[in-house]
C-alpha cells in the first residue's frame, strides 16, 4: 500500500493537484495525513457533505484544529463558520444584512482608490512582493473599513489573520511559531473587546456598531459572539482574498498572453477571476465532524470522525470540469464549489468578486507583464487556506 498523502507536506503545498488527482482515483473518501483524517475528494460527495449539516457538523471543529493551549480562548470558536443550525441561521441573518448590493456599491470608490495607489507604487518600484503590495492592501482596506478600524491598524490585520490561519498548520514542536500565534490570539481578543466597549459607549457608522446594537428577537449578541463575527470576517475576508489576488498574479506570470488579452477586453476580467478561483481555490479544504456513524461512498465514517472536504480537489473533478487541469478562460463554471455550498455558502462572495474585478481593472490597464522573481513560491502552511506567503515579482508598464 502506498504511503498516505500528507496535506501539510512541502510537496503537497507546492502543488497539491497531482496528489489530489491520485486521491480521486483511489475514491471519493480517502484517508490522509496528518492524523489519518478522511478527505472527501469528489465533487458530488463534497456537495453532499456540505448540504448535510445534521450529519456533518461545523461546530464540532471549534477546537479540533487548534493547539490545546488555546482551549476556549480560540477566537474562532464563536464564529458562524463553526456553528450549526439553529444557532447558525440566527446569527447569519444578521451579518448578511451588511453585505447587500447597495452596501457593496458604497465600497467601490474606496477599492478603486486603493488599487490605483497600489499600482502606482508597484510601477514605481518595479520589483515588489505582490502579496504585500496589492493582494493584502486591498482586502485589508475593505475589511478594516467595514469594521471601523483605524487606518493605522490595517497593516496589522494581515499578521493577525495569517497567524490564526496558521494555527492549524503549526507543528507542536515549533515553539517560536506557537508563541507568535499565542501572542496574536491574545492581542486580537483584547483589541476586539476594547473596540466593542468603545462602540457601546460611542456608536459610529460602521458594522461593529450595528452588530453591537443588533437584536435577535429580544436577545442581544454576547461579546463572545461579537468577537466571533469580527474574527470570522477578518479570517474569512482577508486571507482568502489575498490568496485569490496572488493566484491571479501567478496566472499572469505563468500565462503571459492573458494579461494583454484582458487589457484589450476588460469585460473578460470576471471570467478570469472565476476560472482562477476554480483552478487555484483559495480554500484548500474545509473540515466537518460526523455527528453519527455515516456511510459515504461506501466508507463508514465513525461518529466524531473529522472529514476534510477538499474544495481544490472538487474543483478539478473531471466529471464536472472536463480537462480540469487546463486553465480555460471561456469555461462555464456553473458547478463552482470554491465558495462552499449550502447553509455556510460564503457571505463575502459578492464582495470578493467586486474587489478582484476592480483590482484587476486597475492592474491590467497599466501593466503589460508580470514576471516571477523566484523559482519556488513559498506557501502559507495551513490545512484550510492555500496561497503564496510571498510572491516576488517584477512588473513591466503597459
Ligand atoms: C464562508 C470561501 C471571501 C466571509 C466561506 C466558505 C467558503 C468561503 C468555502 C464556506 C465555509 C464552510 O462551509 O465551512 C471564500 C473565498 C473567498 C472568500 C474563496 C475569497 C476568495 C470572503 C470575504 C468575506 C467572507 C471577502 C467577508 C468579508 C465569510 C464568512 C463565512 C464564509 C463570514 C461563514 C459563513 C457561514 O458560516 O454561514 N467562505 N470566502 N469570505 N466566508 Fe468566505
UniProtKB/TrEMBL annotation:
<dbReference type="GO" id="GO:0020037">
    <property type="term" value="F:heme binding"/>
</dbReference>
<keyword id="KW-0349">Heme</keyword>
<keyword id="KW-0408">Iron</keyword>
<dbReference type="InterPro" id="IPR017972">
    <property type="entry name" value="Cyt_P450_CS"/>
</dbReference>
<dbReference type="Pfam" id="PF00067">
    <property type="entry name" value="p450"/>
</dbReference>
<comment type="similarity">
    <text>Belongs to the cytochrome P450 family.</text>
</comment>
<protein>
    <submittedName>
        <fullName>Cytochrome P450</fullName>
    </submittedName>
</protein>
<dbReference type="InterPro" id="IPR002397">
    <property type="entry name" value="Cyt_P450_B"/>
</dbReference>
<dbReference type="GO" id="GO:0005506">
    <property type="term" value="F:iron ion binding"/>
</dbReference>
<dbReference type="InterPro" id="IPR036396">
    <property type="entry name" value="Cyt_P450_sf"/>
</dbReference>
<keyword id="KW-0560">Oxidoreductase</keyword>
<keyword id="KW-0503">Monooxygenase</keyword>
<dbReference type="GO" id="GO:0004497">
    <property type="term" value="F:monooxygenase activity"/>
</dbReference>
<keyword id="KW-0479">Metal-binding</keyword>
<dbReference type="GO" id="GO:0016705">
    <property type="term" value="F:oxidoreductase activity, acting on paired donors, with incorporation or reduction of molecular oxygen"/>
</dbReference>
<dbReference type="InterPro" id="IPR001128">
    <property type="entry name" value="Cyt_P450"/>
</dbReference>
Amino acid at each position: 500500500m502506498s504511503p498516505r498523502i500528507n496535506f501539510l507536506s512541502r510537496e503537497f503545498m507546492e502543488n497539491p493537484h497531482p496528489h489530489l488527482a491520485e486521491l480521486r482515483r483511489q475514491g471519493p473518501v480517502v484517508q490522509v495525513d496528518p492524523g489519518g483524517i478522511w478527505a472527501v475528494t469528489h465533487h458530488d460527495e463534497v456537495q453532499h457533505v456540505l448540504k448535510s449539516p445534521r450529519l456533518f457538523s461545523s461546530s464540532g471543529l471549534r477546537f479540533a484544529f487548534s493547539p490545546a493551549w488555546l482551549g476556549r480562548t480560540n477566537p474562532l470558536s464563536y464564529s458562524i463558520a463553526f456553528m450549526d443550525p439553529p444557532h447558525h441561521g440566527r446569527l447569519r441573518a444578521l451579518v448578511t444584512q451588511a453585505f447587500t448590493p447597495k452596501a457593496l456599491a458604497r465600497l467601490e470608490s474606496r477599492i478603486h482608490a486603493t488599487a490605483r495607489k497600489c499600482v502606482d507604487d508597484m510601477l514605481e518600484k518595479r520589483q515588489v512582493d505582490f502579496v504585500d503590495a496589492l493582494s493584502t492592501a486591498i482586502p485589508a482596506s475593505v475589511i478594516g473599513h467595514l469594521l471601523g478600524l483605524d487606518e493605522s491598524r490595517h497593516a496589522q490585520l494581515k499578521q493577525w489573520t495569517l497567524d490564526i490561519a496558521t494555527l492549524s498548520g503549526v507543528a507542536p514542536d515549533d515553539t517560536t511559531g506557537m508563541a507568535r500565534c499565542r501572542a496574536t490570539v491574545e492581542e486580537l481578543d483584547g483589541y476586539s473587546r476594547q473596540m466593542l466597549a468603545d462602540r457601546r459607549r460611542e456608536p459610529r457608522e460602521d458594522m461593529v456598531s450595528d452588530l453591537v446594537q443588533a437584536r435577535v428577537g429580544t436577545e442581544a449578541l454576547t461579546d463572545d459572539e461579537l468577537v466571533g463575527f469580527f474574527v470570522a470576517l477578518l479570517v474569512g475576508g482577508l486571507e482568502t482574498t489575498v490568496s485569490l489576488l496572488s493566484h491571479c498574479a501567478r496566472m499572469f506570470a505563468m500565462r503571459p498572453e492573458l494579461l494583454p488579452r484582458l487589457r484589450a477586453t476588460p469585460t473578460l476580467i470576471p471570467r478570469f477571476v472565476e476560472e482562477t478561483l476554480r483552478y487555484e481555490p483559495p480554500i484548500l479544504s474545509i473540515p466537518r465532524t460526523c455527528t453519527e456513524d455515516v456511510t459515504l461512498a461506501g466508507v463508514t465514517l465513525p461518529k466524531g470522525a473529522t472529514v476534510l472536504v477538499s474544495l481544490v480537489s472538487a474543483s478539478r473533478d473531471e466529471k464536472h470540469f472536463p480537462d480540469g487541469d487546463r486553465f480555460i478562460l471561456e469555461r462555464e463554471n456553473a458547478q463552482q464549489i470554491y465558495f462552499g455550498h449550502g447553509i455556510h455558502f460564503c457571505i463575502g462572495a459578492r464582495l470578493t468578486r467586486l474587489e478582484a474585478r476592480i483590482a484587476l481593472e486597475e492592474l491590467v490597464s497599466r501593466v503589460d507583464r508580470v514576471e516571477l522573481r523566484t523559482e519556488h513560491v513559498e506557501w502559507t502552511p495551513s490545512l484550510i487556506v492555500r496561497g503564496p506567503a510571498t510572491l516576488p515579482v517584477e512588473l513591466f508598464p503597459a
